[in-house]
Amino acid sequence: MTVTPRCTHLFQTRRELHHFLNRYKQISEERIQPQIMSLSMAIDPVDPLVVFQALAEPQQLNFYMEKRAFGQEVEPQEGVAIAAIGSAAKFTINGAERFTAAQQFIRSTLAQTAICGQAHLPLAGPHFFCSFTFFDQDSDRKPAFPAATIFLPEWQISRSGSHCLVVANVVLCATTNLEETVDRLWQTWQSIRAIRYELITPAIEHQDLLTRRDVATTQHFKQAVQAALTDIQQATFHKIVLAHAVDVTSPLPFDAIAALHHLRKLYPGCYLFSTSNDRGQQFIGASPERLVSVRDGQLKTGALAGSAPRGKTTSADAALAKRLLESVKERHEHRVVSQFICQQLAQLGLSPQSLPVRLLQLSNIQHLQTPIYATVPADTHLLDVVAALHPTPAVAGMPRAAACDYIRRYETFERSLYAAPIGWVDHHGNGEFAVGIRSALIDGCSARLFAGAGIVEGSAPERELAEVQLKLQALLQALI
Predict the structure, then answer these.
(1) What is the residue extent of each domain of the chain?
(2) What per-residue confidence (pLDDT) applies to 71?
(3) Rounded distance between C-alpha atoms, residue 124 and residue 361, angstroms
(4) Is 289 annotated in the active site?
(5) How confident is the model over 326-359, as pLDDT tens digits?
(6) Catalytic residue among 78, 239, 414, 432
(7) Which of 62, 70, 251, 463 suits a disulfide with 269, CB 3.0-4.6 Å?
(8) Residue of 66, 289, 333, 432 marked catalytic
(9) Which of 269, 364, 370, 270 is nearest to 320 (CA)?
(10) CATH assignment of 207-479?
(11) Do the beta carbons of residue 216 and residue 412 sit within 8 Å?
C-alpha cells in the first residue's frame, strides 16, 4: 500500500483524471501486476442512502451501514453512514479459517493499492466490507451467503457529521481500456454530484395483502425452549439463544431501501445495515448490538442481554425498567454475556474495562447493556477480535460449542447472516461490526424475518415466544 501526495483535483476535469490514471496503468504494466487506485474526494452534503438507492444494482455486491448519535451513545465516530456499491475486488470462503483468510485477502489487496486524493479526511481510503454467517460451514439448507464475503467496493459514499466523502477504487492492469474506465468513472462521479433529492419511498400501503407463515410452528419453538430448560437443569449448558423465523410474501417486490428508511426512523439508536450477494438477495436490519469497533487503537464492545417491553405510559414504562434492572433471571443472562466478552478479550492479551450496567431503551423494547473498553496493540487485527467474540452468549449461548450444537438440532432453518458479524475494516485497521439481529432476508416478493430470545434458568416458553413475536412485529412494520 502506498499513499501519494494529496491531490485535490482528481475529478476537476476528465482530462486530468485520464492523465492521472494513465501513470498508474503504466506502473501496473511495468510491475506485471494489477494496481488499485483508491481516490478520495470530498463532496457537498448528501444522504448516502439516497446515493445507494440511485446507484446500487441488485446483481452486484452492495453494503450499507448507518449509526446515528443517539442518547447515551453519542460518540465522535458515530453519526456515520457509509454506502458501498459494486466490487473492485472480492473474496468469499467457507470454513473455520474464514477470519484468517479474510485478513490475508485484505493485506494482499492493500499491498497493490495506492491511496490518492484527500486521504486525510474521515472515512477516506480503501474500506473492506464484510459479512460472516453465523456458522462457518455450509449446511444442506443452501444458505444465501457464503461463510465469509469481503469486498473492496467500486464506489464508497460516506457521511460523518456534516462531512461527505466519495471513494472510487479503480483496478488498472495491462489490458485495461483506459478510455472506457475514465468515461465510466467520470459519468458516475457526475451522477453522484448531481444527486440532491430526498429518498423515494413507495406510496402504496399493502400490509393487508401480505401472507405470513411461521417457518417452524410456534409450538415447535416452545417445545425447543422447554427441552433447553431441561438441558440447563442438567447443566448441559447455562444459556441457549433460540431463534424463530417467519416467511412473509407480498404481491409486490419488497423495497429494501424503503425498509431501511423506515427502520432509520423507527430505531434511530440502532445500527442500520444492508448487505447483498450477487444474486439479488439482500439482508437488512436494525440491530441494537455492537459486536466491536476499533478506532485509533481503542476498542469498544459491550454486553447486550436481558430484555423487557416498553410501557404504554410513563409510569408503566418506569415499572418495567425497574423490574428489568432488578430481575435475577435477566441479570444472570446479562452477566453470562459480559463475563464471556471480558474473558475472550483477555485471551487476546487485552485488558478490558467495564462500565456499570445501564438500560438501552428502544421504541418497543429495552435491554440491559454493559459497555466494555480496551486498548488494542498494533499486532492485533480487528478481525482477530471478531473471531474471538463471535458468537457471543447473547446470540448463541454458554458454553458456546454445546449451545451451537443445540441450535443446529432444533432450528429448522439456516441462520445465514442472522446474529452474525456485519461491518467494515479500513486500511488503518479501524472498523465497526454490528451483530445482525432484528433482521430479514429479502428476495423479491419474499422475505424471511428473524428474531431470537435467550433461554436461561427461570425462562418460560410462553414468555420467550412473546419476546420473539414482539421483535418480529417491529421488523414487519418496517417492510411495508
Answers:
(1) 2-194, 207-479
(2) 42
(3) 33
(4) yes
(5) 998 889 889 889 999 999 999 999 999 999 999 9
(6) 239
(7) 70
(8) 289
(9) 364
(10) 3.60.120.10
(11) yes
